[in-house]
Amino acid sequence: QVQLVESGGGLVQPGGSLRLSCVPSEIIFRFNSMGWYRQAPGKQRELVAAITNGGSTNYPDSVKGRFTISRDNAKNTVYLQMNSLKPEDTAVYYCNAQRIDGLLRNYWGQGRQVTVSS
To answer: How many C-beta neighbours within 10 Å does residue 31 have?
Structure first.
């Protein structure tokens, strides 16, 4: 089955930066889109960034201008660069891959902790 191997994240002070990486077991372009979601304790999972196989990106207002999703085709890797981090960014971040093959399918990474605290 499709696997998404994540790395990065950790603990950082407010205003700092972190990067997350996601390497799928299949080539990136076999997915219609890839992205990152986050879930804080007691909260619903929410989209923080997405990129289509055509290169279009999407961000919610809460992270726009601070987070950047990108890909390195040679490394078959999707990144999430997180700058100007705020305590409210604290959550478990999940890599997501989406594919339509008759049905819309979502695949998920194991999750990486991002903690923003003084």
So the answer is: 24
